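User: Sequence recovery, please. Input:
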């Protein structure tokens, strides 16, 4: 496999992300509980895909496997032609930081940091302390520009406890984008928001997909939200039961 620094660079976009015969089970006491049962799914470059299904059907597990937050019991996850789920842990960590951006239902902002510093955390992790310090003005300028696009430039110094739910989710999206990811993984990004704010977040994600070609995989239980994607994947009891173009 080529160096992680070459997959991809600014001129080489992800062609596709694939799950091949993925199975995953979790232990509950002495019992193994299957969650995913032989899932095959290919996501094309620049697609916006919704994964829908009832609670417990394996939606979030599949997204976590795509983003290397978990590893399958059987099967493979591939980026381009390269298998990535079986890479050494340190390589998976670096790949996760460089290729994937994550947005979660409950934001997962660090409460002790300002909005600006929360947005900068992926770069703090990516670079050594010396490199980050040397380029800190460049990185802060990048973060401020993204935050401005999110309409949050008046909140740079605020901490999460001082933000609304919609502001926290927009901050989480800004944090996901600061590292210029190839794939955005969103787990119920509107699930903790009111309808109006949820629509604003979905409009923002649609623009990222349409204007910047960002590949998005989104988990949701809401059919109206799911239909804002290009394609809907339906999961039932750990298996794909249907694929359809969104209306």
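Assistant: Recovered sequence (247 residues):
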């Amino acid at each position: 496999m080529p160096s992680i620094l070459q997959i991809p660079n600014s001129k080489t976009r992800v062609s596709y992300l694939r799950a091949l015969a993925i199975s995953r089970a979790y232990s509950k006491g002495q019992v193994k509980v299957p969650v995913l049962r032989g899932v095959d799914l290919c996501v094309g470059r620049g697609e916006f895909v919704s994964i829908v299904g009832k609670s417990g059907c394996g939606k979030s597990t599949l997204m976590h496997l795509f983003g290397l937050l978990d590893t399958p019991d059987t099967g493979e996850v591939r980026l381009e032609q390269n298998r990535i789920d079986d890479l050494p842990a340190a390589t998976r960590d670096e790949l996760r930081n460089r290729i994937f951006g994550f947005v979660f239902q409950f934001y997962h902002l660090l409460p002790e940091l300002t909005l600006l510093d929360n947005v900068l955390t992926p770069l703090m992790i990516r670079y050594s302390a010396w490199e980050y310090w040397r380029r800190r003005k460049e990185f802060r300028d990048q973060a401020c520009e993204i935050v401005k696009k999110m309409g949050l430039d008046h909140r740079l110094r605020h901490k999460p406890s001082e933000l609304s739910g919609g502001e926290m989710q927009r901050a989480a999206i800004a944090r996901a984008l600061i590292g210029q990811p190839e794939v955005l993984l969103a787990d119920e990004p509107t699930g903790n928001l009111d309808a109006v704010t949820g629509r604003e977040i979905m409009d923002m994600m649609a623009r990222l997909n349409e204007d910047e070609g960002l590949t998005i995989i989104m988990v949701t239980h809401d059919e109206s939200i799911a239909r804002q994607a290009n394609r809907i994947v339906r999961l039932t009891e750990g298996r794909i039961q249907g694929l359809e173009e969104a209306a």
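Residues 195-212 form the longest helix (18 residues).
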